[in-house]
Design goal:
Blueprint: E1 7-12, H1 16-31, E2 35-36, E3 45-50, H2 55-74, E4 79-84, H3 85-97, E5 103-105, H4 113-123, E6 127-129, E7 152-156, E8 158-159, H5 170-174, E9 178-179, H6 182-194, E10 199-203, H7 218-226, E11 233-237, H8 246-254, E12 261-263, H9 271-277, H10 283-296, E13 301-308, H11 315-328, E14 332-337, H12 355-378, E15 384-393, E16 398-402, E17 408-411, E18 422-430, E19 435-439, H13 446-452
Parallel strand pairs: 1-2, 1-3, 3-4, 4-5, 5-6, 7-10, 10-11, 12-13, 13-14, 17-19
Antiparallel strand pairs: 8-9, 15-16, 15-18, 16-17, 18-19
Helix pairs in contact: 6-7, 8-10, 11-12
The structure holds S-adenosyl-L-homocysteine (SAH), iron/sulfur cluster and FE3-S4 cluster (F3S).
Length: 458
Amino acid sequence: MQESPKSIYIKTFGCQMNVYDSDRMSGLLAHQGYALEKDIRKADVVLINTCSIRDKSEHKVLSLLGELKALKKTNPGKVLGITGCVGQRMGRTLLQKAPHLDIVMGPDAIDRVGNLVGTVLKKGERVLDVQFDADRKRTYSQPSIVYRAKPVEFLTIMKGCDHFCTYCIVPFTRGREKSRPIAEVIHDVKKFVAQGTKEITFLGQNINTYGKGTPENLSQLVEEADRVEGLERIRYITSHPRDLGEDLIAQFGSISKLCPSLHLPFQAGSDSVLKAMSRLYTRDEYLYKIERLRHYCPDISLSTDVIVGFPGETDKDFEETLKVLSQVEFGGAYLFKYSPRPGTRAFAYGEEVPEPVKEQRLLQAQRLVHEILDRQNKQMIGKTTQVLVEALDKKAKNYTGRNPHGKLVHVFNAGEACVGKTIVVEITEATGSNLRGYYVDAPRTQRQIQALSPSSFL
Ligand code: SAH
Ligand code: SF4
Ligand code: F3S
């Protein structure tokens, strides 16, 4: 009798790049005959793809690992693996600390996942693979594994980061910058589009320097992607204010498929904090880039990342951060409390800003961001916007998608037939976090109208 295929469950933490890596592992393992399993308890192989960006991110992983001990006890044949950034950072130590763990591997080992799982299953050995790609070339190739059709896809086009901001673990977990050749990336874009994808977001930790050390660059890739028939929207993430050149900025005014939205982290508003973070730009240089972006694309929606409580950040420094937040009026901002990461330069500074101060600064910044967003979104009420419908939101029980500015829109009266289509939606409700409204070309049911405006039924 033929043995049934081994089943795999993958749990993902962290950034879009990790989501992409998990999809990639699923694809590679599925190609090798493994079955994908949705229930962690039933799976023969459990992989946890991890994030190390803040202390809290690592804690989540380590506590899940603790919970899995019991599962392994009742089923000793179950294979447990840690992949991703915690795997890379902790390596052998993790394998020693957790005897119930069979695999520890880093992000550069993704393409070897099949061999690693196979070694554990066939030989019963525990394996470690935290090897960075030894090839010193600035490029790398990946076998194409596009295997499904989603309207919106993310595609990693480069590895690593060369910046070494003093707080950041990423250069240690993802290694040096390397880019995939444009021809390979476009090949994958076309494969996605042939399966129904309409929007592609190119991913890289420092995307603006894509192609570094080669004759290729990001603006060339954007131009080529713009020519792919059937592709409707292009985005990329994450930009670094120092590396976002005028050529890239100008494309927001000239490339029609390039969405009018950009994530441009500023991290802190005070020049001395920026210097201590080694961000390589001043506040005024950052604001100048914003001015240029708005020059080419007046309605561009900008989002950002901010760290509060970096060592040495005074009340006055923090006020500078608040000033930038209110001056730029971002369409989205991710705010984080500084978390010391072992091995980074800032780790040696200790945690100079006390936790309650960090907490209070975080709340203050959150309040400001929320106020701005609420105001911006409320201005959308009564207006129409183009929404590329992505999927059913099971909790909200309606379909959702994003407009060109990257805003999440809940559509009350869209159906499955709308998935993958760009529809015109009239916004009728707005909160700080999302917009809600009606597909203008479809009927609105009585019940939905009632929910929208109870007074009209009195
Ligand atoms: N490559 C991107 C994203 C890096 S990680 C960039 O350069 O912007 C995403 C965000 O996490 C960062 O922008 C930063 O705001 C935050 N972050 C990184 N390290 C952190 C740390 N040690 N403590 C708190 N937040 C951190
Ligand atoms: Fe980290 Fe800085 Fe690189 Fe972003 S640019 S990944 S914050 S080191
Ligand atoms: Fe986290 Fe690694 Fe991404 S540390 S944010 S999963 S690059």
